[in-house]
Amino acid sequence: MKEITDLGYTVATVSYDPVETLDRFAKRRKIGFTMLSDPKSEAIRAFNVFNNEHAPGAFGYGIAYPTIVVLDAAGVVRGVYAEAHFTQRPDPDAVIEALSTLDGSKS
Predict the structure, then answer these.
(1) Of all residues in the chain, what percent carry a pLDDT higher than 90?
(2) CATH of the domain at 69
(3) What pTM, to 2 d.p., does this model score?
(4) Number of domains forming the structure of the chain
(5) Inside any domain, residue 107
(6) Cα-atom radius of gyration of the chain, to the nearest Å?
(7) Selection from 67, 75, 23 nearest residue 45 by Cα
């Protein structure tokens, strides 16, 4: 994360988990960046990363596909890095490299 913040970007996550769950997770893992709760999956659906491969109520239903969205200061999407399965993650080195080449306002 330091590489990303050193480039002038802010890191935040979005999860459908409740605030209390995110708070416990952040404390247990010593996470220092913002973790946002989206209990109705509104942002998750807006970014089209809502996982509906499983039936409602089943484990895995609604887990957002791992996605990194880069927004500039005006809220314009500057990059999207996504994976097709919740157990895979976008390559952070590729994201950091792409961020270092972006011009314009940072978020």
Answers:
(1) 26
(2) 3.40.30.10
(3) 0.74
(4) 1
(5) no
(6) 14
(7) 67
